[in-house]
Amino acid sequence: IFRFLLTMSYYQLSVQNWFSLHRLQLLYNHSIQATFNATRIYAPASYSYHCEHVSSLQRYDALLIPSSANDLSKLWEVTFIDFQIQGFNIQEGHFAYAKDCASFFSPAILMGLVMSLILLLVLVYALHMLIHLKSLDRHYECKASPAYFAQMKDNDMGDEKEPLRSSGNESYELRNQQFSKIYI
């Protein structure tokens, strides 16, 4: 015989009654053979509780813990598969909507959140770089100006240039090599 010891409590934060499984007792020949304390098995009183595995084994997350070290419950391994319980507000012999024991943050969900955060950071960095990108045309307009040649007086030009002999065209060669300044 399995004996489930359930309690109901009212919680003001959720504004409703909740039931919880405190203890599981195994009886054989009308004597208690093993007692297990239940952990994390609770649900609103109008719901049922469902879990794929409720067990005393560590591989199934050990929701049932032996009540004492001296008890015979250490010798027992108890596992309920597709466990569902509802202690209160049972209507027409059917279970109500079930509160499941599965957590909201599985490793897959957690890795998806981490990857989304990394991708979001990359996107923000790319947008930051695009906003601060400057046009090349505008950049070169500010940095480069047309070559600047200093104005020379006509009388100075006579000293610095020498006529070249050519066939009818007038050409001059500059004697002084430093005649202009270029600013870039």
TrEMBL record:
This is VAS1L protein. It comes from Mesembrinibis cayennensis. It is a single-pass membrane protein. Signal peptide: none annotated. The keyword Zinc does not apply. Keywords: Membrane, Transmembrane, Transmembrane helix. Residues 103-140 form the V-type proton ATPase subunit S1/VOA1 transmembrane domain. The gene is Atp6ap1l. One of its GO terms (molecular function) is ATPase activator activity. PANTHER family: ATPASE, H+ TRANSPORTING, LYSOSOMAL ACCESSORY PROTEIN 1-LIKE, VACUOLAR ATP SYNTHASE SUBUNIT S1. One of its GO terms (biological process) is regulation of cellular pH. Residues 2-88 form the V-type proton ATPase subunit S1 luminal domain. It is found in: Membrane. The chain crosses the membrane at residues 108-131. One of its GO terms (cellular component) is proton-transporting V-type ATPase complex. Belongs to the vacuolar ATPase subunit S1 family.
